[in-house]
Specification:
Helix content is about 35%, strand content about 25%. With about 260 residues, the chain is an alpha/beta fold. Bound molecules: adenosine-5'-diphosphate (ADP) and magnesium ion. It comes from Gymnodinialimonas phycosphaerae.
Amino acid sequence: MSAEPIVKMVDIEKHFGPVIALSGVSFDVKAGECHCLLGDNGAGKSTFIKTMSGVHKPTAGQILFEGQEMNFNSPRDSMEAGIATVYQDLAMIPLMSVTRNFWMGREPVKRFGMIDFDRANSTTMSEMKKMGINLRSPDQAVGTLSGGERQTVAIARAVYFGAKVLILDEPTSALGVRQTANVLATVDRVRKAGIGVVFITHNVRHAMAVGDRFTVLNRGKTLGTAARGEITPEELQDLMAGGQEMAQLEGSLGGTV
Ligand SMILES: Nc1ncnc2c1ncn2[C@@H]1O[C@H](COP(=O)(O)OP(=O)(O)O)[C@@H](O)[C@H]1O
Ligand SMILES: [Mg+2]
């Protein structure tokens, strides 16, 4: 794991009119690590990663990519730098084949000036296989895959096209146990391939399964960053829930929430 972060966000501030969505949030991700961004609904997680990926411009603060200050004006800018984002509502067309989805919006493979469908197909199959998914055929429709497998198509595509940083916005929140385990295994593979993963979740167990570091957001502010081994799942859960509020709630419900 290299010491220098690939992406470093410094004192990020984001206002939407009178709404302060982010205030003084700093966060970085290094090659080969999975840095989890946790927080309850409305904490500012999506806003934060949209700022990292050029969807939003920060109201104040700096974004450094490999040590250089960046001014992303669009998601395309961040993608060209090597930041890939996989959103929860995946931009995929269910009736279209896995191959078509894999290459969507990208330069097709060409041979003698013609699109080389055979190579597009075999590349898709082999990239999916690397992620632990054996497609029946490259023509298999994306709609026939499970939610976890669809996440994996999006992740495999980002990795194949050279992402240095992969941002996953709640990739496991709509999945069952088994599919979640598959996506977590995929995250682990991607990290081991040297990519920096930003994994957003409000599930402490999912974070603990793959995270190297953990940052908790609460109402647009960071509650700090801890490395694996420095924090227990209980402490992380407590932080996410705003600590005291949770203790009170537990008390009034007479048990563990
Ligand atoms: N485009 C927007 N305009 C106004 N307020 C927004 C916008 N996007 C997000 N917010 C507000 O910012 C806060 C954080 O939202 P969000 O980043 O989606 O949280 P999370 O992803 O952690 O659930 C919320 O109060 C939300 O209403
Ligand atoms: Mg969100």
